[in-house]
Amino acid sequence: MAEITCIEDLRRLARKRVPRMFYDYVDGGSWTEYTYRANEADFQRLEFRQRVAFDITQRSTATTMVGLPVSMPVAIAPTGLTGMQHADGEILAARAAKDFGVPFTLSTMSICSIEAVAQATDHHPFWFQVYVTRDRTFVEGLIERARHAHCSALVVTMDLQVFGQRHKDKKNGLAIPPKPTLRNLANMASKPRWCLNMLRTRNRQFGNIVGHAKGVDNISSLVDWTREQFDPRLSWQDVAWIKQRWGGKLIVKGIQDPEDARLAVEHGADAIIVSNHGGRQLDGAASSISALPAIVEAVGRHAEVHLDGGIRSGQDVLKAVALGARGTYIGRAMLYGLGALGQQGVSTALEVIRNELDLSMAFCGRTDIREVNREILLHR
After folding, report:
1. Residue 302 annotated among the catalytic residues of the structure
2. Which of the four CATH numbers 3.40.50.1780, 3.30.565.10, 2.60.40.1080, 3.20.20.70 does domain 7-376 have?
3. What are phi and psi of 19, to 5 degrees?
4. Looking at the DSSP assignment, which residues form a beta bridge with residue 304?
5. What's this model's pTM, rounded to 2 decimal places?
6. Which residues are in the FMN hydroxy acid dehydrogenase domain (predicted)?
7. Lesser CB count within 10 Å: N end or C end of the chain?
């Protein structure tokens, strides 16, 4: 196997090893995929201001996110169906994050349960992401389970009241649960490494839901539950309600507008994540990096502002930090690594990003990520 030097290498390898329906689930967006592409393209339009003749022998990428120490301003984003990219995917990614010193965020729609991830990581604190469902008793249960698992922050996703149409998923029959069509089964059979790993694990269903949500006792009963439970009535009062019951660090994800950022802070957010759901919801929305500055200006003095969407390199992390982000999230970059090489692939993705972040910071004449600001970028 060729040496892995960048996230693109991991993406190409994941494409070979992961069944098409699950790979396409990661590597695509809604409708025309304009926003999905813009998330990456708009990073590339930002240019660095290179500086020389600085003493750059002692450098540090360490900082904090919501008051918690991190080895670099990067967290693993909550991603659904992670355990279908690689068997036990959430556990492997959480272990890699733990070893690397960055936060791992578990999705409500994960394959491995909160309890399974906690046990597999010796109850090392991780973050948990919550979707607000119509069944508030289920949400309360998720919060208590996250507390029991020693989760150190709760992430509430606000931009999935309804589902954006993702053409690739519809064509591939990717649903909850996935449809085992002849085409999909044939494609899975062509991925023997993936199949063998899946045969070895017991984690093949949505562990946070099956057996916990009312009336959901098996994977087939999950279909109706999912269709009915995502709540279009979601409001800021729900955020305040979750903050009251949780009591700990609360991060609100899915913010694109400065006014929404202010409302999130007013209702209890300790941090907000500027995010368009990876271009998977409203196609035609602004890229995350282009939306970031106005939101930092609006609430950056009152809460941490993080960024999710389009991060494919350490240079992207550095540009986001320069524009005011206190932290960033990797979803696809992590999933490419996981699909390509399992836990080692996630560790490799993190190492690639940190190396690129460290070297690019040095070329800009900075030695501490906490001292990075807009001055490292060219303004044309």
Report:
1. no
2. 3.20.20.70
3. -50, 145
4. 271
5. 0.96
6. 1-380
7. C
